[in-house]
Amino acid sequence: MRARIALLRSMGTARPYQDTKPLEIVEADLEDPGFGEVRVKMAAAGLCHSDLSVINGDRPRDMPVALGHEASGVIEAVGPGVTRFSPGDHVVLVFVPSCGHCVPCASGRPALCEPGAAAAAKGTLLGGERRLRYKGEAINHHIGVSAFSTHAVVSENSCIRIDKSIPLDRAALLGCAVLTGVGAVLNSGELKMGESCAIVGLGGVGLAGLLGAVAAGAETIIAVDMAEHKRALAQELGATHAIDPTKEGAVAEVKALTRGGVDLAVELAGAAPALKFAYEITRRGGTTVTGGLPNPRAEFTIPAVSLTVGEQTLKGSYVGSCVPVRDIPRFAAMMQAGKLPIEKLMTHRITLDEINEGFERLATGEAIRQVVVF
Ligand SMILES: NC(=O)c1ccc[n+]([C@@H]2O[C@H](COP(=O)([O-])OP(=O)(O)OC[C@H]3O[C@@H](n4cnc5c(N)ncnc54)[C@H](O)[C@@H]3O)[C@@H](O)[C@H]2O)c1
Ligand SMILES: [Zn+2]
Ligand SMILES: [Zn+2]
């Protein structure tokens, strides 16, 4: 069949994107699902900084690629061997398919699935295939999903079923912003009721993490970003304090507010200076979690002895250290109960044809989460 997709042919296009249009909307050929694969009719797909990082070259991928990785949809067809899904099921797509059998999967850490990571690096689905072609040329899949498409063929291991009562536009955010942000706070950071927490970087992922900190009952929640309007939104969402990290004395201010630093600082900005700030505001004996994805050349240095004398914990968090089959239904239930009001992060609803304008708004920082509604 034919699918309309957002195709990226080269990285590093100059801005503004509404003029230079790095993403081209084309009709591509989509093969039928193969063994263990399903075809999803996309309902909604969110614009995440990780997509922007492919467009601007910070996260290099093989071209051409059908971009997008945060999405929800409805199963339309199933390939041979698929037993867990049927047409009509509502699903959230997860950008690391887990094979279930490699060492990380078997250790309960599917976010680190090795065949999943290898397929993502090659631009294939988990089974090793590419199912999209444009004018005869094979198109790479973006981290097993390729969400900015009317239809996508994906591994069934990239899908998590959700209850049909959950609005599909919000459900899209469960696949990345919520899994990553809330997971970084609750799973990687293990935030406990009454603790103090800082979120550094207040985009869609960081603000989802902030909602997680509010839901977890953190007593002091410090929102950190240089963008004033994002700090203001964070305070509306439950942050007790907001700090501009570029302001003179910002680290000392956090330490004064928290009697020596926060129990947990979570970096969700994707910039090395943000990680440095998060580390510096973490209390002695506290934990710094980093979930941002800066350019691979970016480095971060700390005094080596500080880890020892402060008994600091410094921890990475990919996909929020989530187990999607456990955490998507868990976070969806929190959302349905009003404890994760992620609709408040959805600033724009756009069509597929408006996607370049959307990425320009993400690059300038004007938008939080924008969702393509199909
Ligand atoms: N770990 C994962 O699995 C995973 C998944 C999704 C996204 N990400 C990454 O998370 C990051 C955030 O994604 P997003 O979609 O929310 O991006 P975004 O562009 O919407 O938000 C990033 C925010 O960080 C702020 N920021 C930049 N430098 C800062 C600094 N030094 N101090 C404080 N704030 C700073 C920006 O002003 C912006 O508000 C990106 O790097 C993205 O690639 C990681
Ligand atoms: Zn993402
Ligand atoms: Zn695996």
TrEMBL record:
Keyword Transferase tagged: no
InterPro entries reported for this sequence: ADH-like_C, ADH-like_N, ADH_Zn_CS, ER, GroES-like_sf, NAD(P)-bd_dom_sf
SMART domains registered for this protein in UniProt: PKS_ER (SM00829)
Broad enzyme group: oxidoreductase
Pfam family, one: ADH_zinc_N
Keyword Metal-binding recorded: yes
Cofactor(s) required, per the database record: Zn(2+)
This protein's UniProt keywords: Metal-binding, NAD, Oxidoreductase, Zinc
PROSITE patterns membership: ADH_ZINC
GO terms of molecular function: alcohol dehydrogenase (NAD+) activity
Transmembrane segments: none
Domain Enoyl reductase (ER): 18-373
CDD domains in UniProt: liver_ADH_like1 (cd08281)
EC number: 1.1.1.1
Family the UniProt entry places it in: Belongs to the zinc-containing alcohol dehydrogenase family.
PANTHER family reported in the protein's UniProt record: ALCOHOL DEHYDROGENASE, ALCOHOL DEHYDROGENASE CLASS-3
Record's protein name: Alcohol dehydrogenase
Organism: Rhizobium aquaticum
